[in-house]
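> Could you send the Copper acquisition factor BIM1-like domain-containing protein prediction when you get a chance?

Sure thing. Input:
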Amino acid sequence: MIFPSISVAVVLSAAVQAHFQMQYPIPRGPFVEDSEPLFCDGYTNAVNNRTIFPLSNGIINMNSEHPLWTAEVIVSTYQNPDNFSEFNSSSGYQTVVPFFQQSGEGLYCFPIDLAAAAVNVSGIQDGANVTIQVLFNGGDGSLYQCADLTLSANMTAPPANASSGCKNVSATTSSGAGKGVVEVGSRIIAAGVLSMAMMLLSAL
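Output:
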């Protein structure tokens, strides 16, 4: 039964090669596939041409290549954050969008209200330079991308083309923190791999 084993290996290989790409706001640099598991997709320096971003009523537009995934957004108020610790407070990550689960591949938009986060994160205000980092997991490990922003209270909505191509479905907020997220990721890859493997086996 060599063929089924090979088929399952192919499924596992495909499962760990999917990706995500931030469309808006503009990320720190061009997407680098091999650097996705690294801090900010491998970019450790903030850009000079930051994106002017709404202090309230912002959105994030990203492309997912996973059928089922989770995401979270954290923020740093350092001028040039170059490591994960600069997105931390004494209580952990400075979260501005809590972990949520989503299904389907393609372009998705979700809201981000940085003004609301100002209650818990010092330095978020009109004119502030901040960096957001998306933590993404499609079941095959954590992936990261960053965007350097300048916040504007006068910008009451993102540009019209920021949500171009988005197709949204309901998101489910994770009830737990780290442990719950890992469990979700494990179920995602286990269910996905098992389903694809069974389809391949039945076709042989």
